[in-house]
C-alpha cells in the first residue's frame, strides 16, 4: 500500500457517488476540515438531475433537481471538497486500513475512510417510448410525482407490494387507476391485494403487459398486450407508474462489502458497514424509503460517524506511537 500512497492523492475520506447522499457527506466532511474527495461515475446530482421539479424538499417550495444539485455541489466546493465526476472506478480496495480506489484512467486515490453512496435505479420495462416519456407521463415514484395526476386516469405496472400499495395511495390523487400485471395473481400481501380489489377507483388488467408508449409532448396512450390471447389494445392514459423493482448500483462492490440478496448495502444505525472505516448512505443501502431527504439524512449520519472514526483512529495511533 505504501508504494501506491501519494500524499497529493491521499484523503481523510473518499465519497463514492455525487447524489444528495454523497454531496451531503462531502459538505459535512469538508466543513469538519477533513480532506475529502467525491468520485462519481455520472454527473453531479445523481437521480436528482432526472427530476424536473422537487416539491417535497423542506425549506424550498419548488426547485428543479438540477438547481438543487448545483447548490449542494457549490456548498461542498466552498468548504474545500474535491469532486471528480464523469469517471469510472476500475478497482476498489476496502479491507485494509488505508483504502484505495483506482480509476479507469489509471490514477489511484487512497483514504482513511470511505463513504459509499452509489444510489440506484428503478427497473424499467425497456419498451418503445419509455425513454421518451420518462418524466413526461411515466414515473417510478408516487411520493415524487403523485400529485401531478390529480383527477387524471392513470396506469400502474407491477404486482408486488410496492405496486399494490402505491396503486391504493395514488387513488388519493387520480380519478381512476388501472393496474396492469403480467400474471393472473399478485405477489403482494393478501390483505393489501384485498384492499385493492375492493377499492372503487381501482381496475385490473391481468396477464397483460405494456408494449409501447405513445404521445406528443407528453404521454397520451399505451399499447397493452394480453399475454394469453396475444391481442394488443391501445389504451388512453395521462400517466403510467412503473413498479417492477429497484436495482442498487452496487455491482462494483460485490464481495467487497456486505450486501443483502437484493444487492443493497447492509448498514448499522450509524451507517457503518461490516468493514472498519467504510460507511454507506442513500438509496444503495438496505432500506424502504428512498427520497432526497432520506439520502441527505443518511449522508449526514455517515459523515459524522466517519469523522468520529477518523478522530478515534488518530488518537489511537498517537497513543501507539507514544507507547
Ligand atoms: C425521476 C425521479 C424523480 C424523483 N423525484 C423525487 C422527488 O421529487 N423528491 C424526492 O425526495 N426524491 C425524488 N426522487 C428520488 C431521489 O432522487 C433519490 O432518492 C435520491 O437521489 C437518492 O440519492 P443517492 O445520493 O442515494 O443516490 P443517487 O441520486 O442515485 O446518486 C448516486 C450517485 O452515485 C454515482 N454512481 C453510481 N454508480 C457509481 C460507481 N460505480 N462509481 C462511482 N459513482 C457511481 C451516480 O453517478 C450518482 O452520482 C426521484 C427519483 C427519480 C428517478
Task: List the SSEs and their pairings.
Blueprint: E1 10-16, H1 20-31, E2 36-39, H2 65-78, E3 82-84, E4 89-93, E5 99-103, E6 108-116, E7 120-122, H3 130-133, E8 138-139, H4 142-145, E9 153-157, H5 161-170, E10 176-180, H6 190-197, E11 202-205, E12 208-215, E13 219-226, E14 232-236, E15 239-242, E16 246-248, E17 278-280, H7 292-322
Parallel strand pairs: 1-2, 1-6, 2-3, 6-17, 8-15, 9-10, 9-15, 10-11
Antiparallel strand pairs: 4-5, 5-6, 7-16, 12-13, 13-14
This protein binds flavin-adenine dinucleotide (FAD).
Can you put this structure into words, describing what you see?
With 323 residues, the protein is of the alpha/beta class. Helix content is 26%, strand content 26%. It contains seven helices and 17 strands. Strands 1, 2, 3, 4, 5, 6 and 17 form a seven-stranded mixed β-sheet that branches. Strand 13 and strand 14 form a beta hairpin. Helix 1 packs parallel to helix 2. The longest helix has 31 residues. The chain is elongated. Flavin-adenine dinucleotide binds next to helix 1 and helix 7.
Structural class: alpha/beta
Q: Sheet with the most strands?
A: 7 strands, mixed
Average pLDDT over all residues: 94
Poorly predicted runs of 5 or more residues: none
Listing every helix as H and every strand as E from the N terminus to the C terminus, the arrangement reads EHEHEEEEEHEHEHEHEEEEEEEH
- Helix share of residues? 25-40%
Q: Write down the overall geometry.
A: elongated
- Distance linking N and C termini: 25 Å
How much of the residues is beta strand, in percent? 25-35%
Total count of strands: 17
How many whole angstroms does the radius of gyration measure? 22 Å
